[in-house]
């Protein structure tokens, strides 16, 4: 008997996924956010609608993964929680993170990054990333150097905010970029905005994947700058750790660095969004301050603030689409998934499932502090062997920044979306439109 293939969505349902789930996520900017598209998504509640579309689809096709009816490629959507766990646990083989659209995106600024690598090269590059980022330790071994950098930049940010009377996203983003450059390259790079501008230009092209030709000369200039930084790496920077690690075959250290710059940029968005949520959630703010006031770790390990950042990432994941591509046919209980089939895990669908999660649409950081794992996929950093190797570094830097801010000042939302703790939080958060009021801590 021939092996059945997986269930396939009708043409209409396929169009719903393309237009209602994938298009808004792509339009908002997978590699660098497009602020106007984020504003529009927030006004039209596009991300909440996307979750609704997948809920309807799952009710119609309970036996996923679901294949889409596309003439030009094989593509599946994962709708069952246990299938998410299977895909993530069985990565990078047969579910490779090096999917064709990711290859096209990364070609613009980091063609040999671990994200788009396979086979022995992936193994070498992944090991390098884990070593430099100290993946398995909650407190990075360079925390004694990174935390003071964060504190200094946040202090200066507050001086500016007091002068002007408020703190808009754009000021926070600039201060955060200084943190990023100092953490990655060292103090000498603090004001090297040219490097950030070059990367952002390439990231904007990356948003268009195959639809834009690669600017090879800009990419080469950008990667040559990184090569130069690694050759003269400043002690106490991530670059210095990378430069000191013995290189395995095919490690391509230069191509591993842009990911740090770009992903640390996203971490700034998480820190500012968390600050905005704390400014509107007095109970959580109180708990955060209790932790900060009693902290004996020198802001290196603040579990509640780390949980706040994770909860913000649950509500508004910065990487909502986890993508894979099968390297060979994969047998599921319900049928066969062909080789070279794209696999989409749309994390907001699982993160906002009100049937399974208590307070699915509310800010409840405590869920990350409970020592219970019921197997439900809350995966802002993904999971399994391809889990984000920068997770702990993100939590270290964001929680240290939040502690430096909420420990000394009060914040209120002067402009931006209402985030009322007694009502469901919106599906999209538009940090670009937020302006926070800043006053001495009462
Ligand atoms: C808001 C912050 C961040 C979030 C939400 C995040 C999330 C993710 C996710 C979802 C993936 C994809 C994993 C997969 O395909 O299964 C990933 C991969 C990765 N992230 Fe992060 N990340 C963040 C920040 C960082 C930082 C700061 C770094 C480094 C400094 C970093 C380094 C990486 C690397 C190297 C990969 C590729 C891993 C691999 O392919 O093996 N990330 N991240």
TrEMBL record:
Gene3D superfamilies linked to this entry: Cytochrome P450
InterPro entries found in the cross-reference section: Cyt_P450, Cyt_P450_E_grp-I, Cyt_P450_sf, Cytochrome_P450_monoxygenase
Pfam family, one: p450
Protein family: Belongs to the cytochrome P450 family.
Protein name: Cytochrome P450
Record organism: Arthrobacter burdickii
